[in-house]
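Memo to structure team: turn this sequence into structure tokens by end of day. - J.P.
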Amino acid sequence: MKEKMKKALVILAGLFVIVNGFVACGGGDSEGGNSQLNGNITLNGSTSMNKLANALREGFMTANPGVTVNVEFTGSGTGIQAAIDGTTDIGNSSRALKEEEIQAGLVENIVAIDGIAVIVNKGVTVVDVTSEELAKIYKGEIKNWSELGGKDEPIVVVGRESGSGTRGAFEELLEVEDWCDYAQEIDSTGGVLSTVANTGGAIGYISLDVIDDSVTIMAIDGVVASEETIVAGDYMLSRPFVMATKGAISEQNELVQAFFAYIESEEGQSIIKQVGLILPE
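Reply from structure team:
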């Protein structure tokens, strides 16, 4: 009887070691994952970063099932202010931070590079303009496509709303700040795409990663926006995608630090490329 009890205890001890070994391994956490993390992370800001932020959100939460990542898309300016005010963990901005925003304590964490594509309605026959001609279109100095060798059709100038990171970057790169004469100001990237696709004679600008075949991409100075032309420095309209934090990443809470570690992981970097963006150097 004693011998049988000894054998049973040995078997139970072995099972205890096996079970605990499996739990300790967590079945194998994925890269960037930590089964011990629990809590919430909040991101707020750029609508242009919708695809990127949602893809990173889903990947991170899959790797860390105890964490919930909440993302709002309210525009770069709103997201940056929320980060300054401390009402969000991360402020998403589709433009570089301004000096006053940095002085307010924000740190510019560039996670990707995006191209701003100039798009026109499918009916527009002009598909290549110089940067000077593009500036004149947006300043209202060129008003009809016939002035550029196209059809006799009014140019409908579409852009983003005031405070948009895409608008800020576009106007700064084209050097037309405070000079633009918009026919329509749209409050989202998808809205600009839809408006240009459905408005005769329309021209607009959107993030490169959301382009589809409902519109035509216009070449600027003979160069079409693509990963290759942006990396080579040949395409003029490119901007950073920033995830701003109040203070350095190392000063953030454990969850936010883990989120940025995930972005820098092989899995996170792959997601950035999959959504059509360029990895920063």
